[in-house]
């Protein structure tokens, strides 16, 4: 059961990171205009850190325990 949980966290994290990469690519191409709101940037940063943490936690759980 733990294996399925850790695997689902890794897959979810990969989807979220892929979505972020697409957003960054569109921003660089000029399709997305930059937002000036500081709170939205902080929220995105926190979300990104949480996703990375979940991926690291999942890999640690699968490989080292």
Number of helices: 2
- How much is the radius of gyration in Å? 15 Å
Helix content: over 70%
The chain-level mean pLDDT equals 77
Report the order of strands and helices.
HH
The major β-sheet equals: none
The coarse overall form would be elongated
What class do helices, strands and sheet pairing give?
mainly alpha
Q: What is the number of beta strands?
A: 0
Strand percent estimate: under 5%
Task: Give the N-terminus to C-terminus distance in angstroms.
Answer: 14 Å
Low-confidence stretches: none
Question: Please, could you describe this protein's structure?
Answer:
The protein has helices spanning 2-29, 38-63. It has 65 residues and is an all-alpha fold. Helix 1 packs antiparallel against helix 2. The chain is elongated, with a radius of gyration of 15 Å.
Pick out its properties.
mainly alpha; 65 residues; 2 helices; single chain
Provide a brief overview of the structure.
This protein is mainly α and 65 residues long. It has helices spanning 2-29, 38-63. It is elongated.
Summarize the SSE layout with pairings.
Blueprint: H1 2-29, H2 38-63
Helix pairs in contact: 1-2
């Amino acid at each position: 059961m733990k294996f399925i949980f850790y695997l689902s966290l890794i897959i979810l994290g990969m989807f979220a990171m892929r979505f972020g990469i697409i957003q960054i690519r569109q921003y660089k191409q000029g399709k997305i205009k930059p937002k000036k709101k500081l709170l939205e940037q902080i929220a995105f940063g926190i979300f990104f850190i949480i996703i990375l943490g979940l991926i690291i936690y999942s890999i640690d759980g699968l490989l080292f325990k």
